[in-house]
Amino acid sequence: MDAAKGVTVIETALLTMPANPGVYRMLDAKGDALYVGKARSLKRRVLSYTQIGRLPERLRRMVSETVAMEIVTTHTEAEALLLEANLIKRLKPRFNIILRDDKSYPWLMLTEDHPYPQIAKHRGAQTRKGSYWGPFASAWAVNQTVTAMQRVFLLRSCADTVFSARTRPCLLFQIKRCSAPCVGRIEAADYAKLVAQAKAFLAGNAGSVQQELAAEMERAAAALEFERAAAVRDRIRGLTFVQGNDVINPAGLSDADVIAAWQHAGQTCIQVFFIRGGRNNGNRAFYPAHPAAEETAEVLSAFIPQFYDDKPPPPLLLVNTELPEHDLIAEALSLKATRKVEIGLPQRGEKRAVVLHAESNAREALERKLAESAGQTKLLEGVEQLFKLPKTPCRIEVYDNSHIMGTNPYGVMIVSGPEGFLKSAYRKFGIRGPITPGDDFAMMREMLQRRFTRAQKEQADGAPASEWPDLVLIDGGAGQLSAARDVLADLGVQDVKVVAIAKGPDRDAGREWFHSDGTEAFQLPPRDPVLYFLQRLRDEAHRFAITTHRSGRSKAIHQSELDEIPGIGAARKRALLNHFGSARGVKMAGLTNLEAAPGISRETARRVYAHFHPGVRMEDAS
Q: What is the value of pTM for the model shown?
């Protein structure tokens, strides 16, 4: 390892580097980021990398691979911290602590662009006019809240199109989950009152809402309106149930995130509990990628800015360990939220109990993950021995395809390794052909050829060896194995073990035959753990293939002949379908009828007519 060249690159960059706050990037020979860091003084911070003797082995290796540097200056160190977090999440540098979190978070939405607001789950950009509450840790958590809100506040959850088309109340009205504003069972003013109560509840004012409902129930009873009093009583019971149904439901917390880290065996689990309006919106576990020697506090300090890169931080964060840059992180989050954000390390009382509960969850989740990893390692060692591999496989790729009588053919690849299924590495292959319908061998050949041609190109470009399979599993028998072997031989791939799994007699699970080069086909004992493991891999590939095929078939069904006409976009397509009722109606229409359709110009009408009637002169059509 020659670090001298990297030091020379850094020293050259230092000649023109300012002493301002900012972010620096170490780049390798391919231009990819090795490391992203922030500094109060770029010059002083980067200078430390030239003192090789004081650096740990990991950073010495990073310096040795550095061939270029890039910097971005900022006004303050807090701005630099936010930019650093954004770049780390986007570039995923190998030498940084990286939050592996590619999921969006659901929110609860109350629309404000309709006389009778709708309550619904929402993901993605918040472009529709309305009030948004969240985030929630999972779809299950937000669905539970939507159900509770329907029970207590009787708000509609149907889409506006469904609302406008109803002529009688739906089932939700019958089971007392909606007030049926769609058919006039409630006045607009009364519905607006329900919406106001719901917003107050979501904002953490459940007590005032409960008092208001209690007073309403007493007034109804005093007026001898016992049916209405009973309905309000049911709403009060629902509200009480919601308030007392959370694992973490601290009275002293309104809007806060509880973040606790636990470290063991070189891995870290971070649990985040979302508290909004005094309610627990669920929790989620994260396992950041980091060097085994990294301290818990350092991992948590890197995690927090990355976690809030794409979501607003609440006014309060409760953590279970002191952060090295506590004040800087709080300042950066306040800058992002445009209001004050505090980070607390509670030592006693209710808040401390909440943090300890999150810490306990982090410890238990990490213990489960480590136990699963140990079991996975044993299974992979069993696969190594079974198929006589040169080493324990780190990447197993499984291939399958799906079609119906040759239509909408798709192939898929799933990947498994020491940490289980690697869903981010799954791939779909839309079979391009030309292929005889139902020719599974040809589909498998095309899929493998595309996969390994690309893999060879990526390997030539310096892709990491971890993205090259140690074992390829094919769903099929000797014929599929032969097809796969021919493809790899044509590409010159000789160091990948290929095994085909054929279903047993009567397609019974447990009686599968394994086909591999150099050995006779064989079966495993019915209760062999390695057999169960290989079955799970095969079944996951089959599930993914079926799901992919159904999705592609659904898209094909919803496509129309109108999609093939140049210049016909979504708006014109909708106008034609609304006017003529179907694509067939458009096809059968005369030119005069097309020109009379709302939103369709004369030129567009002629283009549509010409598409369905090639060779007919427009003069004759008129």
A: 0.70
